[in-house]
Amino acid sequence: MRIIGEIPHPVMKITVFAMNMRYSIKLEMGTLEQTYKLRESDYINSFEDIYKIVDDTFLGNCMRRFKEMNEDLIGIFERNITK
Fold first, then answer.
1. CA distances from residue 72 to 30, 32, 68, 78, 79 in whole angstroms, order as listed
2. Contact at 8 Å (CB) between 16 and 4?
């Protein structure tokens, strides 16, 4: 797997990887990460194509998911560690 580019964002680190006709979009925020895997196709076959699909709606949904993931993590500790 090789890094083919990064997409700038003020809060998240967004890295795009390529391997075996597949692309991975990895989003990181703090200790949390989300990864989206896409097959190369007629529509997606370069970093520029990935850059186009990572739009404001997608990023907003990812930010919401990160918030939910963080809430889940806090809940795990509250239920099982801090009593």
1. 15, 11, 6, 10, 10
2. yes
Rounded CA-CA distance 3/57 in Å is 24
Concatenated DSSP letters of 11-79: S-EEEEEEETTEEEEEEEETTEEEEEEEE--SS--SHHHHHHHS-HHHHHHHHHHHHHHHHHHHHHHHH
- How many domains does one find in the chain? 1
Structural domain that includes position 51: 2-80
Query: Which band of pLDDT confidence, cut at 50, 70 and 90, is reported for residue 83?
Result: low
What is the tens place of the pLDDT at every residue in 47-78?
A: 999 999 999 999 999 999 999 999 999 999 88
Residue 75 and residue 26: Cα distance in Å, rounded?
24
